[in-house]
Structures are given as C-alpha cells and as structure tokens.
Write a structure and sequence with these properties.
By secondary structure, the protein is α/β, with parallel strands linked by helices. It folds into 2 domains: 3-114 and 238-306, FAD/NAD(P)-binding domain; 122-234, 3-Layer(bba) Sandwich (FAD/NAD(P)-binding domain), CATH 3.50.50.60. Helix content is 26%, strand content 29%. It has 8 helices and 19 strands. The radius of gyration is 21 Å and the shape is elongated. Bound molecules: flavin-adenine dinucleotide (FAD). Flavin-adenine dinucleotide binds at residues 9-15, 32-35, 37-40, 42-43, 46, 48, 81-82, 109-112, 133, 135, 241, 244, 275-276, 283-286, 288.
C-alpha cells in the first residue's frame, strides 16, 4: 500500500484549501470525500468572500477544485466515506467504504451536518416535503404552504427566503423568543405572509400518498392542532461530523475537534483539523479556507521535521 504525505478527509472549502497548499509544497497528498462541495455548495449566493462581490457557492467550489487539480502531486477521490482512522506503526491508517489508505499525516475537514427532528417518517419524507435547506429547496415551495422549525438565525433566514415564494409560512419555535439578527426578526414579524408560533413543538408529520400533507403541533398549553402544509424546513442546528474520529482525537462538549490555534494540530501528533469541524468559533467560508491553508502550512512543517 503506497503511503501519502497527507490524507485530507472532507470535500468542503477547508479541505480543498488544505489540498491547494499541500499541492503547492509538492507534497503527495490525497483528498478523500463522500461529495465535493460541502455547505458552500448549497450556500447559494455568497457576498462575503473576498475578491468576489457576489458568487454562487457551487461556482466558488468548482473554481477551487480546478485550481487544486492543476497541481500534479495532489489527487482527489470522490465517493469515499471515511469509516475509521487509526495509528499503525508510526503512520496512520484510514479506512474508506471499500479501500484502506496510509499516510504520514492527516487533515480532518469534515464540517458539520443538519440536526434532525427525529420524528417518524422524517427520513422517508426527505425530498418529499421535508428539507433542511431553504436556499436549495425554497423554489419548490412556490404557491404552497410551508412550515419552518427553529428559532435561530438560520430559521429566520429560511422563513424570509420562503416568504418570497410560498403562499404562507409558519415559523414553529420551541422558545418564546426568536434569536439572531434583530433586523431580520423585525422584517419577518411585520411580514403578513408569515405567522410565528412561539412555544410550540412539532409532534407528528402527516402524509397523504407518501408525501407531506401537514404537521401536528402542540402549543404552550399542551393543546394539539393540525397545520396544513406541503413543505417543512428543519433549521434546528448542526452536528459536527466527528464521530469517526472520537477514538483518536479529543473533542469538546459540542463534539468539535479541539485544535491548537497556532498549528491546527489535534491532541494526536500528526493529525490536524480545519474548518467547521473544529472548535474555532467563526463558522464561515473565508475562515474555513484560511484554516485549511494554515493547517497545510503546519503539516508541511511537520513533514519537514520527519524528512
Ligand atoms: C445554507 C448555508 C448558507 C451559508 N452561507 C454562508 C455565507 O454566505 N458566507 C459564509 O462565509 N459562510 C456561509 N455558510 C457557512 C459555510 O458554508 C461553512 O462555514 C463552510 O462551508 C465550512 O466549510 P468546511 O469545509 O469546514 O465544512 P463543510 O462545508 O461542512 O464540508 C465538509 C465536507 O466533508 C465531507 N465529509 C464529512 N464527513 C465525511 C467522511 N466521514 N468521509 C468523507 N467525507 C466526509 C462532506 O461531504 C463535505 O464535503 C453557509 C452555510 C449554509 C449551510
């Protein structure tokens, strides 16, 4: 089995930036990802990435990917889900769904995924009325009634996106008050298409012919009622994709990988991490790109010390 200088796990902006920097150091690096793009690919229009007044997230990813692929020493393998990472005689063994890889160092950049409600039928209805991304699926709510679940910035943003296309939008919030940007909250509070339901929980998803037809909700007094809707957008937070690595690196209470802020090294020598998977508080594209680059610089230094 050939040994790589570094294996990068992940396909988002942090992983791609790491690959770009390692490629420029002419390190034998391999990026393994289930899919390329991560959250940036579904972010829609991005207006806070330096150098671009406005750019579509998927376009930004394809630009970085083609920049990486120009570098001969770095390869990308897509469709590979990493299932384990362990140390074996001074290097690291990385098991994918159908292949095992070996490397002198590892960069984990696996980001995060949407938290689910855990209601019966949620999995089967995903794509048939249940969505976790208003930016991606908002247009499907055109002329329909939509429910958004959540009470933070993402839920508020999703509600705004949907009010532009849907006939009616209900925002179901378990808490009394919404949190996030005040300006946005005021905008949705004054939008006649939107009804905010505070201290309300979702009890059940209702179906008709295997597609979503409504939801059962419970209000602050414990009274249940039915809301007719054809789409529901779940915006209740994120879970770091760190389970696979919990045996080998230290995680914080939020299950994020703890890194040394100077070098991006984890608690395990030779394993580095970057982007939303880490305990770095700012979860932004430009930060993930910078952290990927910073980690790669430290990895190159680590490899020089081994050489
Ligand atoms: C809808 C939306 C809009 C946003 N808008 C903006 C914005 O306008 N501006 C901004 O700065 N930020 C925005 N963000 C946040 C930004 O997109 C993230 O902070 C950034 O993309 C994080 O990048 P990352 O590479 O760390 O992780 P991710 O983008 O989460 O990428 C992680 C990658 O790892 C892969 N992966 C995970 N586990 C495994 C595994 N076991 N094996 C193989 N591969 C794996 C995933 O498939 C994915 O490709 C937005 C996010 C969303 C969801």
């Amino acid at each position: 089995m050939s040994e790589y200088d570094c294996i990068i796990i992940g396909g988002g902006v942090a992983a791609l930036s790491g690959a770009l920097y390692l490629g420029r150091y002419q390190r034998k690096a391999l990026l393994l990802a289930d899919t390329i793009g991560g959250q940036t690919a579904i972010a829609g229009t991005i207006e806070n990435y330096p150098g671009f007044e406005s750019i579509n997230g998927a376009d930004l990813i394809s630009k970085i990917k083609s920049q990486v692929l120009k570098l001969k020493s770095t390869q990308i393998e897509e469709g590979v889900k990493i299932e384990s990472l362990s140390e074996a005689s001074g290097s690291f063994e990385i098991k994918g769904n159908d292949k095992t890889y070996r490397a002198k160092s590892v960069l984990i950049a696996t980001g995060k995924r949407h938290r689910k409600l855990g209601l019966d039928g949620e999995g089967e209805l995903t794509g048939k009325g249940v969505s976790y991304c208003a930016t991606c699926d908002g247009p499907f709510a055109k002329g329909k009634k939509a429910v958004v679940v959540g009470g933070g910035n993402s839920a508020v943003e999703a509600t705004q996106i949907l009010s532009k296309v849907a006939d009616r939008v209900y925002l179901v919030n378990i808490n009394e008050k919404l949190s996030g940007e005040k300006v946005r909250i005021e905008q949705i509070e004054s939008d006649k298409k939107i009804e905010i339901l505070p201290q309300t929980t979702l009890v059940r998803l209702l179906t008709d012919n295997k597609t979503l037809s409504g939801v059962r909700i419970k209000n602050r007094n414990g009274n249940e009622s039915m809301l007719e809707c054809q789409m529901i957008f779940i915006e209740i937070g994120w879970i770091p994709n760190s389970e696979t690595f919990a045996q080998i690196v230290n995680l914080n209470e939020e299950k994020e990988i703890i890194i040394d802020p100077k070098t991006n090294q984890t608690s395990q020598r030779g394993i580095f991490a970057a982007g939303d998977i880490t305990d770095v508080p700012a979860k932004q594209i430009v930060v993930a790109a910078g952290e990927g680059a910073k980690a790669a610089i430290a990895i190159n230094q680590f490899l020089e010390n081994l050489d």
